[in-house]
Design goal:
mainly beta, 8 strands, eight-stranded antiparallel barrel, 9% helix, 1 helix
Length: 148
């Protein structure tokens, strides 16, 4: 019985980023390098992308990033490259990426704003969303593959 209680307590403490004084531990920032992205928009179009994420310093206590997505709709209707800049907030674990340019290679790609939460020591991006003026909103996740 006591062992079960200890195991449950360890599990609970590992799920929440809080230290013994009740202070939030900082979230690990996303790793730089190559990522695999999967997502689905609200019109049920599935998307895949290779994302390159590069650390671009720190400002206002936030890690800065730059990089690009190379997108492809799995139905083959659209594809292209989207360049972005963004930041990561270690207090909340949120990554925000904002498109700065888009080059469509096939069909039409819009310019988006992306949010996701970093997990697993910065090797996964979960609960991601995207939106934008020329974009069908969607949800996405990403998994780190390797350093560039």
């Amino acid at each position: 019985m006591r062992l079960g209680f200890v195991a449950a307590a360890i599990l609970l403490f590992s799920l929440f980023p809080v230290d013994i004084n009740g202070q939030s531990r900082p979230w690990a920032p996303p790793k730089t390098g190559l990522w695999t992205v999967t997502g689905t928009d609200e019109e049920n179009t599935s998307w895949t992308a290779k994302m390159t994420l590069v650390r671009a310093g720190t400002r206002d206590g936030r890690a800065r990033y730059r990089g690009n997505f190379v997108w492809e709709a799995t139905d083959g209707v659209a594809a292209g490259r989207e360049t972005f800049r963004g930041w990561f907030d270690r207090k909340t674990g949120i990554l925000r990426l904002t498109s700065v340019s888009v080059k469509s290679e096939k069909g039409e790609l819009g310019s988006g704003v992306y949010f996701a939460r970093a997990k697993h020591k910065g090797t996964m991006l979960t609960a991601g969303t995207w939106k934008g003026k020329e974009v069908v909103p969607g949800k996405w996740t990403a998994e780190w593959r390797r350093h560039k």
